Amino acid sequence: MMANYWKPTPKKWRKIGDSLLAVAALLSIGGLWQFDNLKDIFTNTELKIMIILSILLGVAGKFLTNFFKESEKTEE
Predict the structure, then answer these.
(1) Where is pLDDT greater, at 8 or 23?
(2) Averaged over 46-56, what is the pLDDT?
(3) How many folded domains does the chain comprise?
């Protein structure tokens, strides 16, 4: 599986990984930007956990898509 990391990632999986990273970044930035308003609903600890989890999930999703590789075409 580690050998696939350095091989080209299929376009479909690159799109999925980039989308996950973009959504995580938007959620994290939005959470930080609206931190004062969200404190009325959640505790500071809950907010920090949500922001950290969104960052980690986005980065992990982007990283994990690198393990997919282009299917090798066999010539007949």
Answers:
(1) 23
(2) 87
(3) 1
- pTM beyond 0.90: the answer is no
For residue 51, the tally of other CB atoms under 10 A from its CB is 19
Is position 37 within any domain? Answer: yes
Are the C-beta atoms of residues 31 and 50 closer than 8 Å to each other? yes
What is the DSSP code string of 33-71?
HTHHHHTTTS-HHHHHHHHHHHHHHHHHHHHHGGG--PP
The answer to whether residue 76 sits within a structural domain is: no
CB atoms within 10 A of CB 8: 11
Q: How far apart are CA 43 and CA 29, in angstroms?
A: 18
Which residue shows structure tokens 């973009």?
A: 22
Q: Is residue 44 part of a domain?
A: yes
Domain that holds residue 25: 9-67
Q: Tokens for 43?
A: 């505790």
